[in-house]
Predict the 3D structure of the following.
Amino acid sequence: MDNRHIQLIAIGGAIGTGLFLGAGKSISLAGPSLLLAYIIIGLFLFLMMRAMGEILLSDLRYNSFTDFANHYLGDFVGFLTGWTYWFCWVMTGIADVTAVTKYINFWWPDIPAWFTAIVTVLLLILLNMFTAKIFGELEFWFALIKVIAIIALIIIGSYLILTHFKSPSGSVASLNNLTDHGGFFPKGLNGFLLAFQMAVFSFVGIELVGVAAKETKNPTKTLPKAINSIGIRILIFYVISLLIIMCITPWNQINPAESPFVSLFTLAGIPAAAGIVNFVVLTSAASAGNSGVYSNSRMVYGLSKQNYAPQAFEKTNKRGVPQNALLFSGVVMFFAAILNFVIEDVFTFVTSVATICFIFIWSVIMISYIKYRKVNPELHVKSVFKMPLGVLGCYVTLIFFAILLGLLTLAQDTRIALVLTPIWFIMLTVCYFIFVKRKSIN
């Protein structure tokens, strides 16, 4: 993949569907204080990305963070990390494929959801069957659509604020709307904390550049550039866009069941607002599904090479694509997504499980960095891409991740996910000792 591919993959990873779909609900929970939640989460995830970047560049033989987790923390953690990351994208895929079906039904309501799900997964598998460059090209355009939509929102929104636009409800677009309706923390500390779950889920996939890095032309140049620009992307795409939305429409007038992006474009007098935003969120969901299929196939391929998965998954086609791993991951994602048509109201549960598993992955990255600094201090000295705050920053970030898990106990739907997710790790542990450890002993 070229530099432009990896840069847009990084941008796409930093703009989750949670921004377009979950922003209304998050605003209703926290009000303007949601902006602070995104800044805090973004700061700690930037540190995590810098830690990952330094380790990947310390040894270019690493294909992904699973490789260095295996190296520094041992076979068992490497096994848990690889399969848990695969599971993360399966869970995320449930939401993404289902979202695609709903967006398609916006235009063609008579098309059965199951048919759209089948076509979506088959199309994603087919597109990923070619080359990594095809994946990069798809993500480039998917991410570009999201970026253009948000930039358009910022430009239009800024104009409405500068001209003191008056909405049909009588509210006037102004910065004062951030504090005039109950203050910056209108729902208090509890509301502020409740918004973190969806806010964190908005960032899942931010670490994808660590999976795609091996397939870039010049990782020593492209990876640092992609990671270093994460901070400004979060500021622009999350903080500024949501700030503008809440300046134009007071937070307590935003419908949590609707996308605030649709509302803003509608207020701006764009009649096709609903259709435009529907197209944007459709491509956003397709992008996330595409990333899931790609990352899962590469993860299973890597696990196979480490003898953590059947050797058949090592097979690649003439284009270098791990086709068996790709087909396996795509089929599992499809059957997982079908569950969403059988079981009602699983979206929050699924996103909570994915959030918990991603927090595990991010924590492993930080712990690996601590071990890397202890075992190979000379590599850190020679590194041209040192992590800010170093080991201390890792410990502070790990504490923050633990707090995030604690916040999931505040709501019933997220609390259930927190209780049930350990079952996955118990199953993995059993599989490791039966299929991997016993095999190595024999």
Summary: The chain is about 75% helix and 0% strand. The radius of gyration is 22 Å.
